């Protein structure tokens, strides 16, 4: 685990929400992913919903780029939006093919209730909130994935049916991008009013909770009840 001590927004936000991270780290989905026993059905559910999610995440990043308070932020989040869409397309080309998910199956599968909630939260926040709050809403997806990826890499049974996923999120290139988003969020928070800073903490917490719910939904293979 990295050292997140300090007086920055990110340090405070991580500390306040570390129990949520720990709940994600130890939840059944990630334990089974690490030891290679996660069922194909659960992973397929996760991958389809993640592809839906990444499209909305890319839209949220594009809105963040439009709201950026300097050219560097504009470039950073415009590029991140592009990467989110590229990754979503690579899911179709690589993971979907590997795990037997056809383009038709993906097109026919609706967002799960949790995926719908999470993506609506991100898009709504991106449109309605000021730039620093938008960043705080987007940050947990970057940060928690990076930390979970590294944690799973450290304890994964190898060979693992999900080696490719593990290597993607544990890789240094992804972590470098995450550190850049953390730094940009901290710079925005340093200039924010107390009210905006409070709102940043609120949306950061909600996004962390939704990260847990997303993995839990995949574990339960959740769908609309009616």
Structural commentary:
The longest helix has 28 residues, at 40-67. The protein has one domain: Heme oxygenase-like (Heme Oxygenase, Chain A), CATH 1.20.910.10. The radius of gyration is 17 Å and the shape is globular. The chain contains ten helices and no strands. The model is unreliable at 1-5 (pLDDT under 50). The chain is mostly helical. It has helices spanning 9-25, 28-35, 40-67, 71-98, 103-108, 113-128, 131-155, 163-170, 172-190, 194-220. The protein starts with 8 loop residues before the first helix and ends in a 6-residue tail after the last helix.
The tally of structural domains comes to 1
Q: Name the beta content range.
A: under 5%
Spans of at least 5 consecutive residues with low confidence: 1-5
- Supply the CATH architecture: Up-down Bundle
Element-by-element helix/strand order: HHHHHHHHHH
Radius of gyration: 17 Å
Task: Characterize the overall form.
Answer: globular
Total DSSP helices: 10
CATH-wise, what's the superfamily?
A: Heme oxygenase-like
CATH topology: Heme Oxygenase, Chain A
CATH class category name:
Mainly Alpha
Keywords: Hydrolase, Thiamine biosynthesis
Family: Belongs to the TenA family.
Pathway: Cofactor biosynthesis; thiamine diphosphate biosynthesis
Pfam families: TENA_THI-4 (PF03070)
């Amino acid at each position: 685990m990295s050292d997140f001590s300090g007086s920055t927004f990110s340090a405070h936000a991580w500390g306040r929400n570390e129990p949520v991270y720990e709940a994600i780290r130890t939840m059944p989905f990630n334990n089974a992913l690490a030891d290679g026993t996660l069922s194909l059905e659960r992973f397929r559910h996760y991958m389809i919903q993640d592809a839906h999610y990444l499209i909305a995440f890319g839209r949220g990043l594009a809105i963040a780029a439009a709201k950026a308070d300097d050219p560097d932020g504009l470039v950073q989040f415009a590029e991140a939006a592009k990467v989110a869409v590229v990754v979503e397309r690579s899911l179709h080309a690589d993971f979907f093919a590997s795990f037997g998910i056809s383009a038709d199956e993906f097109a026919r599968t609706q967002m799960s209730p949790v995926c719908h909630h999470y993506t609506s939260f991100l898009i709504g926040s991106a449109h309605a909130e000021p730039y620093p709050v938008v960043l705080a809403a987007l940050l947990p997806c970057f940060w928690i994935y990076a930390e979970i990826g590294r944690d799973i890499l450290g304890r994964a049974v190898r060979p693992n049916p999900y080696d490719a996923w593990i290597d993607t999120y544990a890789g240094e290139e992804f972590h470098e991008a995450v550190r850049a988003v953390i730094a940009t969020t901290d710079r925005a928070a340093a200039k924010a009013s107390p009210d905006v800073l409070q709102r940043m903490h609120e949306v950061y917490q909600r996004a962390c909770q939704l990260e847990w719910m997303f993995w839990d939904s995949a574990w339960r293979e959740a769908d609309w009840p009616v």
